[in-house]
């Protein structure tokens, strides 16, 4: 049976694990290289991208995740996870995986006061809008040709996919809407 | 588009989970905290140990201090308002701080009522010694809870007492038959709906951090193993011999709280911890945890 990992160095990992379990797959927390070896797909949750990035370096996970991704492991990054997957982070030299050909701006919508939720129309997920919760959220400013843009807010990219990488600027794990997690599960199972 | 919804407020606390929030008083300290891996900083004029030593009335920090700290770090910045002082909270919200701590570390401004936190777009965290206090604060709109502990002491015993109390009350609640739940809510002076929700979830409805006396990586791991979602360190870092090293070690201990080998490694050669205070040497009327209603 396939096993999903949620990177649990810091952030909203518990909510992602609950959402994956709700979708009917087995999910574990990943804090070590050994645990990473054990999973077929990885979620990098929201949290503080600087904290998670530094810990990935300190605890030997950064290179390991890059190697697994190159070998085909699918990764889904939300918010901080989106930042960590980006090649370019505007105005920052913080540690990152750099696996997606995108330029991401941190806190792009503003501080917590400006955080918001909204209905987001996403063609890939049908007619009913996705309830999207943006918390000090980033967005993608520029994306390379290999990146498929799946949703935008005011022309800024908030869902994107490049091969086995999926990112959202917002937090489906904080809602009951499981369509994005199901889409990712299909990616891992080679069905999407 | 909706701003300031409870989901957006409580959501930021979810993002802070498994992390360490550090008290800082200068932009330089804020950078040290960020570089060590803090998931947020608390901008203050003085750390609790100095507030305790100074005595007198402790108030919201000078906005300049808060703004300078907001300018130098990219992580969330929190700041403290006095209990019941909703104008200090309005000022902090206007500065754009990411979370307000309605805190017993400052001198209370109201001897009966806490701030109506639902009126704000910015989320609030509040301290609690037990389940009733935690649920009263959530009832007022708090989107995150922390233990009170005894701030500025470097002594973890009160924080342990408070998290054990909350966990014990939740276990007791879970074992109650439905007809006894309303009386339980009345006894702990908490809103019935929140008591029912806590029973259903088997945990507090919001994220619950540890605070008040955490001084070492082992203290942080202890609070995590007792069921806290993350750690506030007040005086424990910048009142110690080597703040940068200790800060990094507490961050690691908060993630790898279940791995004693990691805890042993990160606890090595940290230099002097802050000087601690035995709780029985603090008169009851000087204990910060007794503030709040």
Lay out the secondary structure:
The complex is a heterodimer of chains A (192) and B (293).
Chain A: E1 3-7, H1 13-22, E2 26-30, H2 33-37, E3 41-44, H3 49-58, H4 62-70, E4 74-78, H5 80-85, E5 86-89, E6 100-105, E7 116-120, E8 130-134, E9 139-143, E10 148-153, E11 156-162, E12 165-168, H6 179-188
Parallel strand pairs in A: 1-2, 1-3, 3-4, 4-12, 5-6
Antiparallel strand pairs in A: 6-9, 7-8, 10-11, 11-12
Chain B: E1 2-3, H1 6-16, E2 20-24, H2 27-36, E3 40-43, H3 48-54, H4 63-72, E4 77-82, H5 86-95, E5 99-103, E6 124-128, H6 131-139, E7 144-147, H7 157-174, H8 181-187, H9 192-201, E8 207-209, H10 217-225, E9 231-233, H11 235-238, H12 243-255, H13 260-266
Parallel strand pairs in B: 2-3, 2-9, 3-4, 4-5, 5-6, 6-7, 7-8
Describe the structure.
The complex is a heterodimer of chains A (192) and B (293). Chain A has a single domain, classed as Class I glutamine amidotransferase (GATase) domain (Rossmann fold), CATH 3.40.50. Chain A has helices spanning 13-22, 33-37, 49-58, 62-70, 80-85, 179-188, and strands at 3-7, 26-30, 41-44, 74-78, 86-89, 100-105, 116-120, 130-134, 139-143, 148-153, 156-162, 165-168. By secondary structure, chain A is an alpha/beta fold. Chain A contains 6 helices and 12 strands. In chain A, strands 2-1-3-4-12-11-10 form a 7-stranded mixed beta sheet. A 3-stranded mixed beta sheet of chain A has the order 5-6-9. A two-stranded antiparallel ribbon of chain A has the order 7-8. Chain B has 293 residues and is of the alpha/beta class. An 8-stranded parallel beta sheet of chain B has the order 8-7-6-5-4-3-2-9, sandwiched between helices. In chain B, helix 2 packs parallel to helix 4, helix 2 (27-36) runs parallel beside helix 12 and helix 10 (217-225) runs parallel beside helix 12 (243-255). At the A-B interface, helix 1, helix 3 and strand 7 of A face strand 1, helix 1 and helix 12 of B. Strand 7 (116-120) of chain A pairs antiparallel with strand 1 of chain B.
